[in-house]
């Protein structure tokens, strides 16, 4: 026999038949509770006993009589706190969350409007509550994704549309006119604009001297360099072809026309420059099934 709602299975000694009985004995302690059936019970024990005798599910809706007003009804909690009724259900107060579940995932990190990183939203709300000031989620992820990112010379760390850190050429220079003559034979407004051009073109453009380049013909104009070579002018004004290709260490495998796999297209061009031959892009990805990656250092 299956007995439900807290009843116990007993055996009638005279008939030897099983039957269910609500055997819970309640004390006379008065600690009223409101059941979800809208009835006030003198204690939780009396509620359970009534549930058993009526053979229906009756749960504690709240502590105190049913006609007692919800103590949280007129309380407005702020800064991430929540209303917690007292044990007797007579009063209530705002309390801060004590514990936060362990997320174990860096993706749960959030950036607060106070400029600080928090392990998760719960920790942010807990801090906001304890400090009694408004702290909201500004971004998902850390506040400064560029923190700790080291970029090559003349590049700065910036964020893309998804707030991922990427190194880009600095494009902001002052308008101050302090002309510099670059090793490519061009005059630049100042050292900053020279560095920006070197970064964008991925050429090793050096400062030959301070001031505008000489008004004579650019020595690079009469020099024809090979594939991927750059014209470079030394301090004596002599132009030569150099393989000063600066490549980032990004893995974007490409297959060259020489059937070799390169780390990226820039590395392929650099190899062509060093070998003084034209190596063209065959297709993106490694060549065939091999993994022969050329990386010039």
Automatic annotation (TrEMBL):
GO terms for biological process: cell differentiation. The keyword Disulfide bond applies. Residues 21-68, 95-145, 161-215, 242-289 form the Kazal-like domain. Gene3D superfamilies: 3.30.60.30. InterPro entries: Fol_N, Kazal_dom, Kazal_dom_sf, Prot_Inhib_GrowthFact_Antg. It holds the Pfam family Kazal_2. SUPFAM superfamilies: Kazal-type serine protease inhibitors. The keyword Secreted does not apply. GO terms for cellular component: extracellular region. Keywords: Disulfide bond. This is Kazal-like domain-containing protein. The lineage of its organism: Eukaryota, Metazoa, Ecdysozoa, Arthropoda, Chelicerata.
């Amino acid at each position: 026999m299956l007995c439900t709602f807290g009843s116990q299975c007993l055996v009638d000694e005279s008939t030897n038949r099983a039957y269910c009985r609500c055997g819970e004995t309640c004390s006379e302690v008065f600690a009223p509770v409101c059941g979800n059936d809208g009835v006030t019970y003198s204690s939780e024990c009396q509620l359970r006993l009534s549930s058993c005798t009526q053979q229906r599910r009756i749960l504690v809706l709240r502590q105190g009589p049913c006609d007692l007003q919800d103590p949280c009804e007129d309380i407005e909690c702020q800064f991430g706190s929540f209303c917690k009724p007292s044990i007797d259900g007579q009063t209530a107060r705002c309390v801060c969350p004590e514990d936060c579940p362990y997320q174990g995932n860096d993706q749960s990190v959030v950036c607060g409007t106070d400029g600080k990183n928090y392990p998760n939203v719960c920790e942010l709300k807990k801090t906001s509550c304890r400090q009694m000031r408004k702290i909201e989620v500004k971004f998902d992820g850390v506040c400064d994704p560029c923190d700790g990112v080291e970029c090559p010379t003349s590049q700065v760390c910036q964020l893309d549309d998804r707030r991922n850190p990427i190194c880009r050429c600095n494009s902001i220079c002052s308008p101050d006119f302090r002309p510099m003559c670059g090793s490519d034979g061009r005059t630049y407004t100042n050292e900053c604009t020279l560095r920006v051009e070197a970064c964008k073109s991925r050429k090793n453009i050096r400062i030959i001297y301070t001031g505008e380049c000489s008004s004579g013909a650019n020595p690079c104009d009469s020099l024809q360099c090979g594939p991927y070579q750059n014209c470079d002018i030394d301090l004596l004004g002599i132009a030569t072809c150099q393989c000063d290709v600066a490549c980032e260490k990004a893995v974007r495998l490409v297959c060259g026309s020489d059937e070799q796999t390169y780390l990226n297209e820039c590395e392929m061009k650099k190899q062509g420059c060093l070998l003084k031959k034209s190596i063209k892009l065959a297709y993106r990805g490694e060549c065939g099934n091999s993994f022969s990656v050329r990386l010039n250092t």
